[in-house]
Amino acid sequence: MAKPKRGVPKKVRVPTIQDVARLAKVAPATVSNVLNDSRPVAAIRKERVLAAVQALGYRPNALAASLRRKETRTIGIVVPDLTNPFFGALVHRIEELAAESDYQILLVSSNEDPKQEAARIRTLLDRRIDGLIVAPARDEVEAVSHPIGALPPTVLVDRGFGLAGFDTIAADNVEAGHRGCQHLLELGHRDIALIAMDPKLANFADRIAGYRKALAEAGAGRRARVVTGGLDVESCRTAIERELRRPDRPTAIFAASYVATLGAIKAIRAVGLDLPGDVSLLGIDDADWMEALHPYISAVAQPVEQMATEAWRLLNQRLAGGTAKSARIRLPCTLHVRESTRAVR
Amino acid sequence: MAKPKRGVPKKVRVPTIQDVARLAKVAPATVSNVLNDSRPVAAIRKERVLAAVQALGYRPNALAASLRRKETRTIGIVVPDLTNPFFGALVHRIEELAAESDYQILLVSSNEDPKQEAARIRTLLDRRIDGLIVAPARDEVEAVSHPIGALPPTVLVDRGFGLAGFDTIAADNVEAGHRGCQHLLELGHRDIALIAMDPKLANFADRIAGYRKALAEAGAGRRARVVTGGLDVESCRTAIERELRRPDRPTAIFAASYVATLGAIKAIRAVGLDLPGDVSLLGIDDADWMEALHPYISAVAQPVEQMATEAWRLLNQRLAGGTAKSARIRLPCTLHVRESTRAVR
DNA sequence: TGCAGCAATTAAATCGATTTCCAAAGGCGG
DNA sequence: CCGCCTTTGGAAATCGATTTAATTGCTGCA
Lengths: 345, 345
Prior knowledge:
Rossmann fold; DNA-binding; LacI/GalR-like_sensor (chains A, B); homodimer; alpha/beta; DNA binding (chains A, B); disordered N terminus; 434 Repressor (Amino-terminal Domain); transcription (chains A, B)
């Protein structure tokens, strides 16, 4: 293998359309026409161009093309936290779909902070992205929409459901809360504590509403116990631990998110209770490991893949010029009954 | 709230530098000079420009700027699988660091496929990214480097260690295998099966080497049992299951990756063995849930955060014109002894 | 008072494509 | 055989910034 041993990384001038044109003895316009076949070009010339392209290893500068075309074939994705497997899966799937249609992904993370979110979105807009998929940090996307004015076609996923002017997609969170609580009720639980990271977020509000509804239907309306955890595992753990140490501790914990579920498991351990012997645990959001270690964790799974697919579909519709009024899509969750939920003694 | 009710999403013409110049009654060049303070501008004019910028809500078109400056402040990241928490954490951290320096991330996933990887990298290059961070699908990055020719400053993370011409970063995998195996040996295990997804990948080869070394040091050199799993959880599970069903089944499983660990847990369950009563399990790669459910899973943790930090540091050095010879950084892993590894009966 | 010298502005070139529009050439009917 | 129409090719405009180079307007010194 040749050892370059150069000092400064030799700036290789990448070939431009001019170079190709020169080599093929045609006009730049012709090269462009061949490559995009935007207009017919005589076979002889076409060949010469293709040969030149080959020879030089020419690839069009996407920046220049985008500038002229006013289209970047790039979409922005904003998530609160890539570390959360839910968003990991979401981004993964969207990237996959986008790539199939020759789009690329500018990824930014808002770290659950609306300020950062707004700032990052602005930088995305400077890049003239064609579209935007956001899992907002908060539901009032004033941060998203207000200071910015015109956004490109935008789809809101998971949070911010129903915000005017956006296509929005979310799991049917009311149903998730309802179905989950019902499951626990059917097992005979009456003291069910629901752990929400932040009850002001619509997702949690909905899940709480569903939970309350199920309780009410069972005639246990006043037994609702909603605990506010926090945005991270640790704060959820302490909140739940406190709850579990009370004399009237719940017999079941309904953890309304991935982070809360993790916190709940740790809290139950910390207090020294048996899962599911002493307390049952039902999570919202599924993860690969929940079916690995005993007790397998029961969970209401959000349809991440579907959410991603729908998000991409809606965005595509807009990109294609579709002008239907804002879509609002609720996707059903599925309850996975596993081992962490057990009939009350 | 006003209801636009427009048919086609009214194309708002975004203001350009020309518009600002016109409004401020100065030349476009002056606007540019103010905004980048590339040259001194009289206070009166500067104010006028700033006011105009405010009034119009002007933001420079990053495409145009990039085209001219030949710098996009964008870096590409390529990972095999975002669903894997290791890569999730890696990307998360890099994005964070990049944002701090006002860089943005074009994210692509190679799906563990070198062909896709090469294709996706090419599209990244078309976008004229300033730098590239890759966790390659294979170690021979001919896919990465060959057909493409000149790459921008590139850092290889996790895989492809030591490839000529790249800064490379990886965990000290030999040591990880060595330390892990040693731990199992200390517990009295002699029949330790190591599960690698693909022994041809250098990472796994290294981990295997470390494992063999530890065995040899213990005078158990010929007891090495290396099982080839596969790229996904399922195939790992079946491979391990087969191993566990043999009459001379191992007393300990050393799962050399996140995916293998998950597969191992499932396999142990499937065969009906007790973890860690009948078999011990040690994983490589840590995850939040490993310290949640019993038995807590012992694991050799790769220093993801550090790897991300170093990757960004090295890339920055190159971006800043640093011209040192390719760095090769090995980062130490840490053994987390938890509950899944137990002294052999 | 005249001119060198400096600082602040701006006109124009540039980045690298796409697209518009004009010109030349070839085909065809009258 | 001539003029009109259809192709095809290429020159030039364009996208929206940055940067270079030229210009303008002062200041200050002789």
